[in-house]
Amino acid sequence: MKAFATSKISRYGILMILILVLPSCKSSLPDDTTLAHQELPEKIDFNFHVRPILSDRCYTCHGPDENARKAGLRFDLEAAAFAMLDSVDRTFAIVPGNLKKSQLVRRISSTNLDFQMPPPESNLSLSDREIEILKRWIDQGAEWKPHWAFIPPKE
How far is the C-alpha of 3 from the C-alpha of 91, rounded, in Å? Predict the structure, then answer.
């Protein structure tokens, strides 16, 4: 009977050790942002990848509706999207090839709710994958294309 009690205590002790030790042994899987970055296509296409994000998440406040537009910023027109935001600070929403100088990247990556875009009260958000698409597009030179309907088809 004593051996049975000892083995029960030993099993309980081993179980407790496993419960305490195993969480620290977990594999270091990449976070959602790293996974999103790894799953992106090599070349980001404006019409296929970027325009749908801007249209769905940004046009509400930065699109063609003049009455709804915020901060005088537009993402539906190429010239407006690349225009200077502030001449004093010399800031731009999108600086092709430069993530650090692109205010768009700073805003969509921010955790500060007062600075973050889209703002929480809009009930819109960007997934990690969408943020990574926009960042890669800017990093690749932010090539803008006319709407696909205005591009002649090629064989």
Answer: 76
Residue closest to 58 by CA, chosen among 80, 86, 38, 32: 80
Sign of CA dihedral 145, 148, 152, 155: positive
pLDDT in tens, the chain (155 residues): 555 555 556 666 665 665 655 555 444 445 655 656 577 899 999 999 999 999 999 999 999 999 999 999 999 999 999 999 988 889 999 999 999 999 999 999 999 999 999 999 999 999 999 999 999 999 999 999 998 888 898 88
Q: Count CB atoms within 10 A of the CB of residue 117.
A: 22
DSSP reduced 3-state for 102: strand
Predicted TM-score of the model (pTM): 0.74
Residue 140 structure tokens: 């690749």
Whole-number Å distance between alpha carbons of 62 and 55: 9
The contacts of residue 115 (CB under 8 Å, 6+ apart) are 106, 107
Residue 43 burial (10 A CB sphere; 0-12, 13-18, 19+):
exposed
Helices in the chain by DSSP H: which ranges? 2-21, 32-38, 51-53, 59-62, 78-81, 103-109, 128-139
